[in-house]
């Protein structure tokens, strides 16, 4: 009698335990092809003509079958990309038409430590999900500085350029919640 009760209890518990296993269903965001470039051009010793930083990558979500392009510009004069500190949440491109209708991804980037925060909402089999995650990238940067020693009015005075790239994809563990609509 006891044994029967125990085995039916086990039979009852087993599938539930597997279904609720905390990690089996959690997807991963992967940031591919991360590049981060900065362009600063002075037209005179005191005049900043161009100061612009851009970050770009391809985002995949292991729960979804398509790739999203994410990119952003920053031209704050005292620095670029504060990781959401000034409310700079950047939208990724919408998914290709026909797939992932309603999916939206936003991200933050912090140029101080090259960290990313990524949120994405999507719909799968009629259920809406939001996934949130953050992670660090390691960027290798090349720097080029040029100054015009014989500068006269109308020429560029100096250029300061950085090209940064991540040689590996960055995988981010995602916390997923269902969204009731
Ligand atoms: C990464 O960049 C390469 C070369 O441009 C491209 O072929 C590949 O599709 C990109 N990866 C993703 C996930 O988009
Ligand atoms: C950064 O510069 C490299 C080399 O020119 C280019 O391939 C890449 O697309 C640039 N990235 C951004 C975000 O502009
Ligand atoms: C993601 O959502 C959380 C909770 O709403 C928010 O605190 C965080 O700033 C968001 N991050 C991005 C990159 O949108
Ligand atoms: C992305 O940002 C838009 C506009 O601020 C907001 O409406 C949306 O909820 C955000 N989505 C995610 C996934 O954080």
TrEMBL record:
It is found in: Secreted. InterPro entries: AltA1 (IPR032382). Coiled coil: none annotated. The keyword Calcium does not apply. The keyword Ribosomal protein does not apply. It holds the Pfam family AltA1. It comes from the Eukaryota. This is AA1-like domain-containing protein. It comes from Lophium mytilinum. The lineage of its organism: Eukaryota, Fungi, Dikarya, Ascomycota, Pezizomycotina.
């Amino acid at each position: 009698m006891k044994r029967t009760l125990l085995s039916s209890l086990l039979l009852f518990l087993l599938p539930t335990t597997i279904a609720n296993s905390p990690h089996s269903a959690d997807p991963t965001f992967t940031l591919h092809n991360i590049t981060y470039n900065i362009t600063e051009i002075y037209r005179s010793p005191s005049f900043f003509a161009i100061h612009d930083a851009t970050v770009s990558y391809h985002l995949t979500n292991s729960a979804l079958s398509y790739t999203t392009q994410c990119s952003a510009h920053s031209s704050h004069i005292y620095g670029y990309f504060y990781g959401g500190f000034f409310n700079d949440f950047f939208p990724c491109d919408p998914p290709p038409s026909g797939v992932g209708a309603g999916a939206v991804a936003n991200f933050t980037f912090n140029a101080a430590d090259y960290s990313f925060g990524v949120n994405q909402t999507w719909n799968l089999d009629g259920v809406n999900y939001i996934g949130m995650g953050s992670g660090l990238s390691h960027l290798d940067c090349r720097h080029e500085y040029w100054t015009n020693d014989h500068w006269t009015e109308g020429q560029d005075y100096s250029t300061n350029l950085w090209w940064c790239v991540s040689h590996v994809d960055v995988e981010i563990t995602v916390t997923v919640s269902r969204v009731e609509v």
